Amino acid sequence: MVVTAVRAADSRQRFIDAAISLFARHSFAGTSLQMIADEVGVTKSAVHHHFRTREELLNAVIEPVLGGLQAAVEAAEGQRGRRARAERMLTGVVDLAVRNRMLVPMLVGDPGAIEMLRSRTEVGELANRLNMLLADIDPGVGGWIKADMVMAGIAGGMSARTSGLDDDVLRRHLIEASRRTLGLRAPRGLR
Amino acid sequence: MVVTAVRAADSRQRFIDAAISLFARHSFAGTSLQMIADEVGVTKSAVHHHFRTREELLNAVIEPVLGGLQAAVEAAEGQRGRRARAERMLTGVVDLAVRNRMLVPMLVGDPGAIEMLRSRTEVGELANRLNMLLADIDPGVGGWIKADMVMAGIAGGMSARTSGLDDDVLRRHLIEASRRTLGLRAPRGLR
């Protein structure tokens, strides 16, 4: 029983990993369950056993990212002071983006993925809380523009050109540049 | 003769304006020549007289932006010193983006428009020269990441949320935040 459950979770994850790689190469709309089956080397009905549609697979791909985003927003909101909240939000979102490097271009650029994200109301709500935490450093329109610029900039800084960089190096550059954009000093001990 | 030429140029521009508005609402792939004819209030054959395909219309929409980008890159390359070059490139690209506010989301987010831009070799070449001018402030990987972040950030800072802002206010915010990201001081007299 235990072994069967582990195997089921294991093949479920293999389909998710194959989907991430195929969505990145062929877009969500350009990827079929058959292609995912071929990539893993199983029949389409083996995929069907776990995911009936590619939408279900996309949701399974996105789920851990949304969970991570929710946790990062909540951790930031729990800080005292708007600078501490913005700093925690920034590092949280960069950590999450770097941990999901392969997914970021899809989440911000694939029309199918964007449509799916827009259809989930919690995504808009989380994005608002995130933006508010970053924008609060400079109340008013300037803060909102900088928050938008930082969020777009983090995704843009993870382009093909940086794909060979270590996670840690990329993370450090993204955080440093975003702090400057927002006008956030590095926390004590990290300057 | 002169009147006829003016009228032809005039209706050509009306089709281009209608295309910009429809591409923004329905995407390039979701806009037909018939929709453009309907928007202007003419027959499809009247559109056909100027543009045989929507690809031709998209090229006509993009052409002045590419011309402006080329001029901005050349003006920046003509400056002395890498800070002056980066500053001129930054203000040039923000001016161009703000002047083409309605087009920017399409140029960075519409798959059909992106495909068209990618197919034109001069676009990649201009983008490289632009990025080099911005990245040169901080030679190495950090400079490239910041240049990517600034370019994505400028587009991201022109989101729906800022659509009500004056061009001048938006322009100033985008330039100030981008200068901070790049580590560029405002030129003398503007501090």
Overview of this protein structure:
Two copies of one chain form a homodimer. By secondary structure, the first copy, chain A, is mainly α. Chain A folds into two domains: 1-52, Homeodomain-like (Arc Repressor Mutant, subunit A), CATH 1.10.10; 55-182, Tetracycline Repressor, domain 2 (Orthogonal Bundle). Chain A is 74% helix and 0% strand. The first copy, chain A, is built from ten helices and no strands. The first copy, chain A, has helices spanning 2-26, 33-40, 44-48, 54-77, 82-99, 104-109, 111-119, 121-135, 141-156, 167-182. The mean pLDDT of chain A is 92. Chains A and B meet through helix 9 and helix 10 of A and helix 9 and helix 10 of B.
Largest sheet of chain A: none
Strand percentage of chain A: under 5%
Shape of chain A: elongated
The name of the CATH topology of the largest domain in chain A is Tetracycline Repressor, domain 2
Structural class of chain A, by secondary structure, is mainly alpha
The quaternary organization reads as homodimer
Task: Write the H/E string of chain A, N to C.
Answer: HHHHHHHHHH
Give the total of beta strands of chain A. Answer: 0
How many helix segments of chain A?
10
Distance between the termini of chain A: 53 Å
Classified by CATH, the class of the largest domain in chain A is Mainly Alpha
CATH architecture of the largest domain in chain A: Orthogonal Bundle
Most extensive protein-chain contact, per-chain counts: A-B, 31 and 31 residues
- Rg for CA atoms of chain A: 19 Å
The number of distinct structural domains of chain A comes to 2
Could you name the ranges of chain A where pLDDT drops below 50 across 5 or more consecutive residues? none
Share of residues in helices of chain A: over 70%
Mean pLDDT across every amino acid position of chain A: 92
